[in-house]
Amino acid sequence: MEKKHSLWYVILIASAAGMAGLLYGFDTAVISGAIGYLQELYNLSPAMEGWVISCVMIGGVTGVALSGFLSDRWGRKKLLMVSAIFFIISALGSAFALGVTTLVLARILGGLGIGFASALSVTYISECAPPAIRGRLGSMYQLFTILGICATFYINYGVANSGTHEWALDVGWRWMLGYGTIPGILFMILLFFIPESPRYLVQKKDDEQAFHILKRINGEQVAQKELKEIKASIEIEKSSSAKELLRPGLRMAMGVGVFLALFNQVIGMNAVTYYGPDIFRSVGFENNTEFLATSIIGSVQVVFTIVAILLIDKLGRKKLMAIGSSLMAVFMLLIGSIFYFDPANAGVLLIIMIAGFTAAFCVSMGPIPWIMIPEIFPNHLRAKAVGIATVFLWGANWAIGQFTPVLINNMGSTFTFWMFAVINVICFIFVMTIVPETKNKTLEEIGQLWKSKDKTQKEEKIQEELV
């Protein structure tokens, strides 16, 4: 009897590509531990503090913008390797930085690598994964992101407790940033064990190797069907351009993709991740307990990201996002109220409220946009559309990193968190009224959601000719 597929091979592919999230998670979290020391060492203003944190997104946006073109030319796997190399160099450059300028330059280089990886990782997984478990496998990127964030919070806590405050001010923050070489090296090693994307191989006329990979993933019968579908979509792609994303139907898909990317970043989680120790310090945490409190939040992220992976292909994307955004709005309202009424005596309560918000994020708007954005576009436009959506994602990420300290400094914590509550309400309305459900649909079936009748008939004719 024919072996249908190799589940372990699929898991290896998804895990290796998903490890790109470890780089993103490390970089997102490590600066929250270092920024307090950098602010004191270099007397940073709120705007400059935001710049040191957000400068990485400049590289990220650039990496995302170039990723589609470069991955079509060199392949997904090679560009993921380049991203790992850039991140390793960035970690070493940050650790040995001679001042703010060299630190910023090193972080921008790291952002370039993370930008490549963030645009390609989930796209690569979606091109390889069987439809029935694509959601769970696509969640690997977010899972590794959260594991990276959690581990880095504990690394920051451990480094902060490894010496005196003066030692941490002089050397400790360098160790925090330098530990980034570890996830970079792990990512690079794993990439040697995964194949190139079958879709890229078909683009390069290597149908035999593409079929071999698809057969290992799905079994022979499904592989034959998928190979025909990939070839059909590539033929369609030859006569298409990014302008199609502005046509009726696909214009809606592009709008959904962009807003999912924006909401992933602007609903408040990144403000907690980047400035967690500062937030806890503002309500009385001291003697490095602010790092411990942040580490607890990181542990909550890991637990509920695993919950999301178990639920996403059962409950569906839309339902989880609706539940999560509504809960996040409530928790942000309560967090803002804590700062309004009695922040000095609300340490434990604040941890509980932020943990609740974090749990809601991790089962909804954390992993799901990373999965749905590649899903909702037809094959022949996916790379272009994902690149555009991810540019918006990184742009929003930059805005949160840059302006959160300015908002808290000028408008206060209460206004800032209530603003995030309003954004979550808008997110809930958007999910309920516009976002489609993509659970258990193949990429081709999802693509038909946005197509006009004439366009669908044209593609069916091409497929019939190929068959």
UniProtKB/TrEMBL annotation:
SUPFAM superfamilies: MFS general substrate transporter. It comes from the Bacteria. Its main location: membrane. CDD domains: MFS_XylE_like. PANTHER family: PROTON MYO-INOSITOL COTRANSPORTER. The chain crosses the membrane at residues 7-38, 50-70, 79-98, 104-125, 137-155, 175-194, 252-271, 291-313, 320-341, 347-373, 385-403, 415-435. Keywords: Cell membrane, Membrane, Transmembrane, Transmembrane helix, Transport. Residues 13-439 form the Major facilitator superfamily (MFS) profile domain. NCBIfam families: SP (TIGR00879). Belongs to the major facilitator superfamily. Sugar transporter (TC 2.A.1.1) family. It is found in: Cell membrane. It is a multi-pass membrane protein. This is Sugar porter family MFS transporter. InterPro entries: MFS_dom (IPR020846), MFS_sugar_transport-like (IPR005828), MFS_trans_sf (IPR036259), Myo-inositol_Transporter (IPR050814), Sugar/inositol_transpt (IPR003663), Sugar_transporter_CS (IPR005829), XylE-like (IPR047984). PROSITE patterns: MFS, SUGAR_TRANSPORT_1, SUGAR_TRANSPORT_2.
